[in-house]
Amino acid sequence: MSYRVAKIVGAHGLKGEAKLFLFTNSPQDRFYVGAEFSSSIEGKTFIIKSLRVINGHYSPVFEGYESRSELETLFGTELFSDDSLTDEDNFSYEISDLIGLEVYGTNSGDKVSSGAGTDLFGTDSGDKVSSGAGTDLQGAGSLIGKVSAVINGPGQDLLELKLDGYSEKVLLPFVEQFVPNVDLKQGFIQIDPPAGLF
Which domains does the chain have, with CATH numbers? Predict the structure, then answer.
């Protein structure tokens, strides 16, 4: 049985280092020099030639794709491993799982002002906020909206968000950098978009 462990969503620099969106909680056990993955490209496998960890993000170079231009042909490709680690590690998100989730800010200190003048971020790390289901979400930031749709793009998936104070829905790349936490059990995601994205 194969398990989805990552999606290639971008590149670091010009030497073929890949940006990955991870579907595994054990990247240190999945990603190493010589690791081999099947993929969403029928009959195509990938082997890690070299690997760097950049600010906590795994950035492999795959054999045969050692330049940015070669890697760009793989954007959107999903990687699979045949090795089972734990049930938690084998978790992956389905579109139906994400639609309707509440959207919270982070406690990074960033503030994004909505059209109504409401701060979307900036609660203290010790604050508790309550979800619509009545569950306390320790340190999750402010409730700012809901996920209204998921759009499958050629390079990466996009979350369509209906945010409080915005008359129009906004799009956010569904990558770990901008969506650091997805909690299906409590029914929410946390987002940390860059300034000026909305």
Answer: 3-81 (2.40.30.60), 95-190 (2.30.30)
